[in-house]
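To assess whether ligand presence alters the predicted conformation, the chain was also submitted together with pyridoxal-5'-phosphate. Input:
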Amino acid sequence: MKDRKLLMIPGPIEFTPEVLRAMGMPTTSHVAPNFIEVFGQALERLRQVFLCPSGQPFVIAGSGTLAMDIAAANLIEPGDKALVVNTGYFSNRFADILERYGATVTQVHAPAVGDVPALEEVEAVLKEGGPSTGSGHGYKLMTITHVDTSTAVGVDVRGLAALGREHDVLVVVDGVCSVAGEEMRQEEWGIDLALTASQKAIGVPPGLALVVAGPRATDAFRNRKTPVPNFYADWTRWLPIMEGYEARQPRYFGTPPVNLIWALNVSLGQILDEGMETRFARHRRLSEAFKAAVTALGMKQVPVSPDKTATTLTAPYYPDGVDRAVLAHIKKSGVILAGGLHPAIKARYFRIGHMGVVSASDILATVGAIEKGLAQVGYKFKAGTGLAAAQAVLTT
Ligand SMILES: *Cc1c(COP(=O)(O)O)cnc(C)c1O
């Protein structure tokens, strides 16, 4: 344990010992009775974690990008119009994927890095596009990045999804940095497809693409006029597999990643034991404590205001005279943080993930390591200022 490090990046995150133990268990056959039960249970639990009782879950080996690919491959047909609510790096990626499947993509951009597109602007574009049914001139789907991992910007998914519903547009949410951390109520908010990956707030090592499709999304897939132009992503293959395992009757298309699914079921069980409401509240509170420390240490954040900020991560600008060299010092104190990612400001800021099993003591350890790092690179501040600000929130 001498070299123990705390991994505080926006994925992969820290995993619980129980999850890691599941990763190291002797691998069973993918049709072993105990594995069938575990896979079936994991699918049932995904519905609860996504808060989507009528959804169809998909658990497929791959990363979050595969989950995005699956959404686009199955829902888009050549010539369909798609709207991307663009908040940065991963919204750009979604636009690229949609175009690859033949969509005509319109993007509504945030006015500046760290900001979000205005609801009114999204509404105006949807109105212009007309209804998607009938004339066929409207948007078929819109994508929303719940938390942009490159900037820590969080958008009003609820408000945007309501607009999508109003205009009869399929609402697709990239929740890779949000699901099981940030508040997201898929069914209640009218989200037709939500997706994530195992290594973020779900708390399982990288390797699983997780998708929950609501009835309108699976209907749109069933009503396709053209085959899905991607062999591995095609729901035609995967629907019988997921339905089969949930009915405890395994079917084969591609070998499932047995240990990862075992670990997923353990983590989903832990998430549901905590309870979704408690979990959302814990993420909000720890985020508030951490952000209070950042502000007290004289650092500004990339998101332009608190209501446009994620609770799963924080993106502070370096203070004057400090650059990414400070991250190496922080690492020497035992905490690993991430550098900038958004191309326009990459060298000017850094990122801290605080999602999953993160605790109040992890937050304090991270603030302590940041203070020490800042002091080592010559930044002037009163030692303990950040810690006191975080503690003030944590002890109320
Ligand atoms: C991490 C992330 C992705 C990509 O996931 P990978 O597992 O790296 O492919 C997509 N969208 C968002 C919002 C993310 O945070």
